[in-house]
Amino acid sequence: MATTINETLTYPGATVAQVAALATDPDFRAAVASYQHALRSEVTVTPAGNGQHVRFEYAHGTDRVPSFAKKLVGDEIPIIQEESWTTPTHADLVVTIPGKPGDMKGTADIEQRGDDVVQVVKLTIKVSIPLLGGKIEDLIAGLLSKAMRAENKVGIKWLAGEWQS
Prior knowledge:
Elements (H helix, E strand, L loop, with lengths): L2 E9 L4 H8 L2 H10 L4 E9 L2 E11 L5 H7 L2 E12 L2 E7 L6 E11 L2 E11 L6 H27 L6
Antiparallel strand pairs: 1-7, 2-3, 3-4, 4-5, 5-6, 6-7
Helix pairs in contact: 2-4
């Protein structure tokens, strides 16, 4: 069994170019990590063919994680989010939690819809742990969805010139 995330993140009044630039801006990603109270974060952006590769590493504390999951993850949850932007508007995503079983893969697409730009993120989460896999998939799905919505919130303020770190 696997769990799927489908998030549509709206950027009112933005352009595709503006939202695409956010995805590969290390300063923006650092602001997102700060907003989410990440324990630490690091972003690297490197050219890859005609696109760019983004590696966003961050770690969250486990103060809001259910006790059954704390036994599996420890004191923090390190996350590595890798994005291969093959065009300015399409990325293949791979999210890993180092040292933990699981597989998270998907896509991100940026498109104009009327006056707004949307980023559509689709991820499939698979955790192969007998009995607990489904619960952990749901937990990870919730954490990743919350992280995407936080990134959207920061992005809207960032594009409006209202972001203050």
